[in-house]
Structure formats: structure tokens, C-alpha cells
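Crash report, auto-generated. Payload:
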Amino acid sequence: MTNHWNDLQHTDCALIIGANPAENHPISFRWLTKAKENGGKIVSVDPRFTRTSSQADVYAALRSGTDIPFVGGMINYAIENNLIHKEYVAKYTNAAFIVKEGYDFKDGLFSGYDEAKRAYDKTKWGIETTEDGKPVKDETLEHPRSVFQLMKKHYSRYDVKTVTTVTGTPEEDYLKVCKTFCETGKVGKAGTILYAMGTTQHTVGSQNVRIYAILQLLLGNIGLPGGGINAMRGESNVQGSTDFGLLFDNLTGYLGAPKASVPEHATLKGYLEKETPKTGYWSNKPKFVVSLLKSWYGANATKDNEFGYQFLPKGNKNYSHMNLFNAMSKGELDGAFLFGTNPIVGGPNAGKEKEALGNLKWMVAIDLWETETSAFWQKEAGSDPSKINTEVFLLPASSSFEKEGSISNSSRWMQYRWKAIDSRGEARPDLDIIHEFALKLKKLYANSPKSADKPFLALDWNYGNGEEPDIDLVAKEINGYDLKTGKLIANFGALLDDGTTSCGNWIYSGFYPEEGKNKSKNRDNKDTGGEHYLNWSYAWPMNRRILYNRASADASGQPWSKEKAVIWWDAAQKKWVGKDVPDFKAVTAPTEPGGTGAFMMNKDGVALLFAPTLNDGPFPEHYEPYESPIPNAFSAQEMNPATVIFEENFNKRGFKVDYPIVATTYRVSEHWQSGTMTRNQEWLSELAGHMFIEMSEELAKEIGIKNKDKVIVSSARGEIKAYAMVTKRYKPFTVRGKKVHQIGMPWHFGFKGFATGDTANRLTPHIGDANTMIPEYKAFLCNVRRAD
Amino acid sequence: MTKYVKYVDVTKCDGCRACMVACKNWNDLPAEPTEFLGSAQSHAKTTADTWNVLQYIEHENGKGNLEYLFRHSSCFHCTDAACEKVCPENAISYTKYGTVVIDQDTCVGCGYCTQNCPFEVISLKEYKDKNGKEYRKAHKCTMCTDRIDEGLQPACVTTCHTGAMEFGDKDAMIQKAEQRVKEIKDRYPNAMVYNPQGVGGTHSVYVLAEKPSVYGLPDNPKVPTSAVLWKDYAQPIGKAMIGATTMAVVGAFVANKIFSKKANGHDEDGGGNHE
Amino acid sequence: MVEMNLNRRQFLKLSGATAATLAVVELGFNEKKAYAKTKEFKIAKATVTPTICCYCGVGCGILVHTKNNTVVYTEGDPDSPINEGKLCSKGTTLRQLYTSEKRLTKPLYRAPGSNKWEEKDWEWMLDTIAKRTKETRDNSFVEVENGVTVNKTEKIASLGGAALDNEETYLLSKLMRGLGITYLEHQARI
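Recovered output after restart:
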């Protein structure tokens, strides 16, 4: 989230799309309800009329997988009706930049496409620069090759008629959404976009988010209270776990993992040169990288050995979830650790993922419960135990209040949890398990002369002498030290690239600036202004609560409006002041070079309407999902041309002729993710005890199904049984003149726990977003029939 | 003593059901097996172990628009409570706050209260004593009277995040409800305050988005005349004459005769098990 | 526990005798004096510890009431500005994470081809896991690839971690990368 939960109360309009916060982030509605009381509007855009829709002022249905037409049409509407915040756009985005000759867009393809590789040559999307490397601009936005004009042209194709025939949205509802939300382009108003997995879990997931961001930038809604683009995180610490580098391609703090496939990465020097931009805040990257290496390799990281850079593994491919399971299904993996995760319920094409586990020699699951995944070898799972040779180790883990530590919520607030009670039975905190496991390995490898063992032996592991690690030492390592004085470092501004500072995760640096002051433990709940609660917990980076808040002020440093003021330039004090910590260099005057660079993480200090960095194009463009009931109305490209397609065996594809119904998955309030935490509890199992499929009355009638009947849902990957929930909250769509049905189902169920049921993900495909490889859970094809 | 009212504005409810589990958590109520009901709703109505149930209703309003309505349903804590009137053992009483509570030590499980509640919120639960003998007790929402005693609000109200529920001074809450109805008339033309006078008003006061019948509520619930007769006339006289225990048996007979009793498998031995 | 970082006011509000303090907040009076009680109040004499909800990304504050070595009640933390004492159904039932009969209480081992779990002690489990890890790593470790130092193993995967604490994710990332593991993924992807 650029903003935070409490800040939602300041919004003039919340556009909720690809999310259902009333059911999945219920407490957000405490603040959205407040926003309504303050006169704000709520717009809910969802294929299904949800509990969020029930609280909305405007509801519009869209067929799953059509966010880009939906929002692209809003962009067109805002430009056509002159509702954009032009000054903001000219100053704070790259709208004025001139795109180089050679950029083109034709029939769904941008210039530079290589069909054989299913990839683009992104150098074809360059920006014109002056001799000293600065972008060429036309702040009138009139130049035909200006980003603004190219964007305007691109989205002129997204007229209301075309859009609504693709999305299936009634035109009247669509125009209501456009009008209501685009009102926030006025100075003094702010609109927010709230989204979740309904947005990201598509083959065009990244571009879905991008198009929301473009709309928000055009309306001048980023950096303002009640504005922003807000991803609502589904897990309590999925923010933190991502910040701390638990994805293959990032070390901590979004420092890219070195790759064997990039020649420059062979040395630290080459890596830093290649990955460090000359301008923008990321120009400090070497300081963060070297300080991280010092945290990981301690005294073994020296100037002479590239600070231990060579100890880091260098991969040569994409190791993300689906590739991981593809490799596992081919027998390429021997061992796996699973920390509180249940992929045979939560992973895509889950039947295939279950089969793959049988190819492991050993598997370690650390969990509070016996999950479907740890029990994949059992008869209940449909397996023959005698034929599965995987050794399984299941370790009982402590629950969140049986240990202490911090987690980071969607607002990036790092909050501390104290230990309330000793662990149940022999359960142990994950921290202890990881620590003791590391010590045992250190012992096994001790004194090994082999060069292959050197990287592990070099790993600095000093968290006290007991079997239980000292969590405070871990916390301090994350914050970092001035190694010359041995004192905790004040914040990442003090980090250096010469090996004299250490820092385990630079974006968090500053949360523990001196002994005894772990700010994640801060519990002063006094409102410090603007409902930002600066003394409650610690928000990374630097305790900033609204990201890009420099953009809440105009180029001269004064707030665009009194209503939405956050920070402003105080000429007398010669610094930025206000209600939040400036997301900007606090002493840089608006008139100084870079003084208007509100998006300081980007190299030119502006936000990118035109993003030549994505794999699937500089502007979001509509492509149909991998499995779609309808040809693409916008071009001859049916699906995202840059998406990786797995071989047939790993991912069967279904077509309309056999599977005419669009399906999506979602969650219910009472269950969480793959259900292990909640289906093993009685009260929640009582409230939501059954697997069901939601469908419209019209579809039920067509296929002869009554409410509460048992039905079988099939896709090209498998079949599941469930109850039919026939509801008025689903309506058939009219898409390009044809009737299209959509159904939806929760993905929480499995065969363990109190509440059991078939696993929805046995239906979902192994296909993902062109940039992130997030699976397309939210739009696939299926069929439904009566079970008996 | 101040009378308190639980104010429930169903138009602010987003159906999260925290109220249902907060109740179970505070009152240590066990989970019970539930069947699939064809909607998100978990229980058809309140039970002896589930004192409040969230209703989910899909309703097409006069304009043809779909409304997805939710209602926290539990004991209304009537000012003139039929349950209190028919209880042969005086196990049901009014507290000084206006809440209606069942004394578990006194309850004999006769079931009159369950039959006569105009809102059907009281249920019997069967138990076995250490000798294997079965007995029953009536259960319902207590409005967390034990919490009110400590100055706390009912658990369901405390957890409600949208402000759909509040707890406070009766007059203030009723006033709030009336004010709220005015605010929402545009969106919900049938909105109304539900505080039925046929039972003397209630201590759960609702702002309903639609007519009571949409929620399966009686338009104008009343304490049955027979219940009034029983409590105010027959029972005192009977008790004076033949003692409370026997009176309960007589009560069973009276109840069967004069209250239009519903068919219920457990009713055979209605008042007979109380010893 | 929490004593270190709670200021005086908050400590009073959170510790044992809370009911009276909270009473003033919620109803503006304390009825206790006027009404004799027979049963002990459910959360009287309980220890109260603040935590953050383990479910979605909102990060609501929760108070865990413990007594006689069990969790007797969980409720919203009124001091948290995020939820101000309110919770959803999942947050409200945090208590059953501790009390559920389905909790794993012992390490379990399943041998190849076996159809059942066996109880094992922690020492044996961690020793054996460490052995398996070393064996697989040693058999698959690549030091140099096309002349570039790569120091990796592609035969071990580590998945999960979105429910772990930050300190845990930090150590996990450090350890797994330290071992040379490249298949390092978690729920952010799925």
C-alpha cells in the first residue's frame, strides 16, 4: 500500500476492484465506513455482487480478466472529458517525455516482438535523451511522440462501447463508475484504488496494476491522503517475507539476486555497475548491497574477496513457484522445505503439484497442523503410500502468540508481537528451528577443506549461545551497525559501500537506531496529525506513512489543496514539514535540482505512465486470459504474447467447446488461504463448513440445477465435487453479443481439518503473468454438471 | 437503574460474523455440525449453542435492484417477555439493565419459553448427568449480562468493526435509530426502526433496511394473551395452592392446551423431566 | 512479556485488573459494586498480552488472555489505532489456534513407502534433516558454471514463510541462500 488502513477514511472515492475487502480484509471497512460518513463514495467492481458491493454506492460487474479494458476505458473517459490533473501529470509523470522513433504498436503487438522467444526487445521502447543523458520533454504534452499523446492514442481505442461489450458491464453502470471515480481528478479531492489477488492473478496481472497506477497518476491521486494505489495483502506478513527476500529473484530490500545468466554479474563490480542507476535514490544501491554482504558474511566479507559476493548463489533461470513444481514433476529436485505452506491446496493445478511431491526424496514440513501437503502420501489424498518413497519430516511449529517477533502489515507497519503463552506440546518457534538446524549444519560442515563448503562456512551465524537464538540480535542485525564504532546505525542514510557498515535489510534500517529502541514495539497511539500515528509501530522506509507524499504539494512545494495537505516546503526553516515524514530529501528545496522529483526512486524522479521496463509492453494492453470464451476484440493477439507457456503435460489447456463457463476462485471471511489455520478450528469450521460453487439463477436453470444440489465442476486439469449455491449475485454477461456465464468458488478446502471439501485449485491452470509468474487463478474455463 | 439497549444498524453490517464467534468465545459455546443451507448463512436460526446467527438475504427491492442484506439475529430482550411470563419455575427474569436472562440452576427444561418466544430465539439443550439421566436446559443470548456487570459491553458489540452495533442508554439508542432511519431513507425507502411495542419494546433495537418480513420477523409481535393469563393469573394462584414443582407439571398441561404448540420430538415429556 | 515497552497508562489498561479500567471506557460506570456475583468473571486474574493478528495484512491488534496455562479469551486490542478493539471472525477466534485438538504437538516422521506417521524426538529429526540436506547439497553443488562462480544447488527447494515473523524470514532467507539454494519461493507468488 502506498497509504495505510487508517488513511482510507480520508478518501473521496474508493474504487475497489479485484478485491473484496468486506470479506477478506474486514477491518478495512471500519475505515471505509468512516469515509462514507465523511461523504466519500465506494465503488465496487467485481464479477460477483459481494459483501463489499453491498456496502458500495456504485456496483459494476465485469467478466473476469477484463480489468485492462475496464480501466483503459476510464483513462479514455478522463482524457476525453478533460478530468485529469494536468499540472500534476506534466510535472510528476513522464507524460512530457518524448519516445524515440521506432516505437510502434500494431494489432496488439508493440515494436520489438520476437515470436519464437515470446519476448520483446525493450530497447525499442526508448526515451529520447539530451547529450547529457537527460530525457527530452515537452511540457505542453502536444508533441506527437510525447508519452501523453501516445497514451491518449493507445486508449482512444478503449471507447465505452467496445469496453462494455468486452467486459460485459451494463453501459449505464460503467458510466456511473467513470463519472464517480474521475471526479477525484479535481484539486482538493482524492480517490484510492484498492486491489488484491483478483487483480494480480492473471496473465496480465502486472499490467492490471500498472493501468490502475496510470489512472491514479492522471487524476493526481498518488501521494495524497485518501489516495494512492493500495494492494491489500492476504497474509499477515507476506509484506515482510517479500521485503526480506523470500522470493528467488530478490535478496532483502528488493536488491536483485545475482544471475549466472547476466555476464556482468560475474563480479561484484560488474553487478553493481549493471544494476545501479546513475540518478534517483537507487544510485545508493552499492551501499545497501555491500552492507547486506557484511551482515551475512561478517568478518569473512572483505574488500579483497568482493565482500563475499561470490558466496551468493547465482541462478541461471526463473525459479518461481510454477517452474519449481515443473522441475519437481520432472524429478529434478530431491529435497524441499515447506514453512507453513500448503501448495497442494493453494498451488495452481494442484493435482499436478501433489503428484510432483512424490518425486522428492525428502520433504520437511514445519507447521501447526498436519496439512494436506504434509499428508500427500496418504490414502485420503488419493495416493498409494506403498508407491511413494518420499521421506517426510513434520515439525510442530508454535503459533504466532507462542513466540515473539515482528510482522509488517499491508501499510508497511512493522508491529511487534509478544509471547503470551508457552508453545503447545513440543511445538517450537520457527526462529528456533531455523537456528538449531543452521547450527547442526555448521557442525556437520565444520573444518571441511572443500571449496564447495566455503560459502556456507563463511556465513556469519552468531545469535547467542543457547539453542534458542537471541531474537534481539537478529533484529539489530537487520537494522545494521556502524562497524567502526560497533553501534547501531541510525538509518539507511548512514550506510556505506566500503565495508564499514552492515545492514540486513536496508529498507528497514532505522527501526532500531539505538540500544533498547526497537520501534516496532512502539505503542503510543496518540494521533500525531492526519491519523498517521507516527509513534505507533514503525513504517518502512523511515517511518513514512504515505509514500510519494512530495506529490501532495505542487512544484513550488505548497499543498495542492488545504484538504489534502500532507507535507510542504517551509522556506523559513528551509525544510519540508507537515503531518508525515517526508518521502523526499527533507532539505531539498523545490527550486533546487531534483526539487520536484516526487518519485525519487525512479531515475528521472517521475512516475512512469510509459514503462519501458515491463516484459509485455510499455502500456497495458488487453489480452484475453489463457482460457477465454471469446476472441479478443482489441487485436489479433488472443493472449498475452509475452507469457511463458509450459509444455502440455504440465498444463492442459481447455477450450470453450468443452468448457464454456468462466470460473474464478476467491476466499470467504471465515477461512484463510489454503484453510489449514481455520479449517482446523471448530468455530470457523462451523461458520463455513462446506465447499460450494456460486452460480447465477440463469445458469442453474439452463443446466437443471437447484440450490444446494451437489455438482461436479470440471476443467482441462481435473474435476471437483461441491454444493451449488444458486444466487442472484451472479448474472450472466453479454460479451460481444453472446451470453457468457461465470461461476466462482472458494479455494480453501482440502481433506484435512474439521471442515473438508474438494480443492478448487485442482481446476486452475499452470500459466502465469508475463512479469511475475503469478498464476492465473482468477480466470479459467470450466463446465458444471449435476453430481448424481 | 439505567436500561440498556443493543442498537443494531443492519445497513452498516458487512456480514463478517465476528459477532457470532465473539459470542461463542466469551460464553464458551461449542461448535455444532452445520449443514449447507444454500447461502453463506451457517445456521437457520439460533440454537442452544449458537446464541446469535447472522442472516444473509438476497432481496430485490422495489426498483428491481439487488440488495444483499445482513442481520445479526439474537434475543430481543423484550420489555414484556413472553418467555418470562410462561416460565413455570421463574427461571427467567429481567435484570436491572432490562436484559432477560435464564437462571440455569432453576431452569427445568420444560420448553415453554422456546414455544412462546415470538422470535424463536430460545432453544433447549439435552445433557446427561453422571448417572446417565437426561435433562434439559433452555439457552439463549444473555446480552453478556456478566460483562455488563463489570462495565463491559456485550462481546458481539465490542467486536463489531463497522459500528453496526452499539450498546448504551436506552433512550439515546432509540433516538439514534430514529435519526439513522432518516439518513438512509433515500437508499432504503422501507427502512424502519424495529422496536416492537406489542412486547413493550425491546432491548435490542434494530434499524432495518427493509420491512420486517424480509428478515422473517413478525410485523407486530405480541405476548400471547394466554401467556399473560398464565403468568399473571394461573401461576401465582397455582403456586400458592400446590407448590412450585407440581405446578410445573400442571403448567405443561396448560401449555399444551392453550399455547398453539409446535410439533417437536422432544416435547412428549415436556415438563416431566424436571425432577 | 510486554512490560518493557508499554507506557504506564497502557500497562494499567492491559494488566490483570483491567475490567474496571475498561469499564469506564465502555459504559462510563462500574456496576460491580451494585450487583453481587457468584461466578468468577471469565477474564479476572488472566494475564493479558498484546499480539498482532496472524491472518490478513490489516495487522489488527489482539489481546490474548491466558490463565492456568491456557488461552481463555482473545479480543481486539483497544489501543491499536488500526482496529480500535474491533476484529473480524478470524481474529476473534485466535484462541482456538491454541486450544484446537488438531494442533501438532510432537514431531512426526514418515518413512519411505510407509502408510503412517511415527513420533520421533526433535534431536533425531533435526539431525536427520541436517544429514539429508548435506547429502543432497554435496551431491548437487555447482561451484562454477561457464567460467562464472555460481555456488548453488538446484536440488533443494524452500517454500513458504508469509506467516513467519520478520526475524524468521530474515534468518530463513540468509540460511537458504547461504546453502546455495536457488529454488526459494513463498506465498507472495501464489
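Post-recovery validation: Helices of chain C lie at 8-14, 18-26, 89-92, 95-99, 122-140, 166-179.
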